[in-house]
Amino acid sequence: MTVACHLEFPDGKAPDALRTIGEVARALGVKAHVLRYWEEQFPMLRPLTRAGNRRYYRAADVALVATIDRLVNRDGYTIRGARQALEGGLTPDAVTLAPSDEDSPEEQLMAESPMLEVELVAAIARLRVHLEDIRSNLADALEEA
C-alpha cells in the first residue's frame, strides 16, 4: 500500500538532497526528538551521520519517516505494530518533493517516483535486522558449546 505524500522543502535544494533533522521535522510536522526516538525503535531508519553525530536524511529516509508518521499518528498503529508492518513488507509511502519546472525530465521523474530506492533501502534494512538476529543466535550457540 503506497500513498503519495507531497512535501515542500522551501530551501531550494534538489529533491534528492540530504536534509537535516530540523528540515525533516519541519516538513513533516514532527518534533526532532520524536525522529531520534523513531531511529531507536525502527532499525530500518538509519540516516547518515557525520561529524558531531549530525544526522542527514536521504529521500528514502524521508519517505520512511513519512510512512512511520502516517502509521503511528493517523492510522492508529502502535510503535511495535508499525515496526512489524514495515518489517513484514509494507513499503514506505512515495514521497515527492515538488519538482520545479526548471528540473530536467530525468530529475522530475526521480522526484516523482523514488519508490525503487525506498523499497531497496527498506529491504536492506530488513535483511540487516535478520542478519543481526542470526549473528546473535550463532554467538549464543558458540557460548553454549
Shape: globular
How are the strands ordered across the major sheet? 2-4-3
How big is the Rg? 17 Å
Oligomer: single chain
Low-confidence sequence ranges: 1-6, 95-100
**Protein structure class:** mainly alpha
The ordered string of helix (H) and strand (E) elements is EEHHEEHHEHH
List the keywords.
mainly alpha; 145 residues; three-stranded antiparallel beta sheet; single chain; two-stranded parallel ribbon; 9% strand; 56% helix
Describe the structure.
- The chain contains 6 helices and 5 strands, in the order ββααββααβαα.
- A 3-stranded antiparallel beta sheet has the order 2-4-3.
- Strand 3 (48-50) and strand 4 form a beta hairpin.
- By secondary structure, it is mainly alpha-helical.
- The N and C termini lie far apart (45 Å).
- The radius of gyration is 17 Å and the shape is globular.
- Helix 3 crosses helix 6 (115-144).
- The chain has helices at residues 21-28, 32-41, 59-74, 79-87, 105-112, 115-144, and strands at residues 5-6, 19-20, 48-50, 54-57, 95-96.
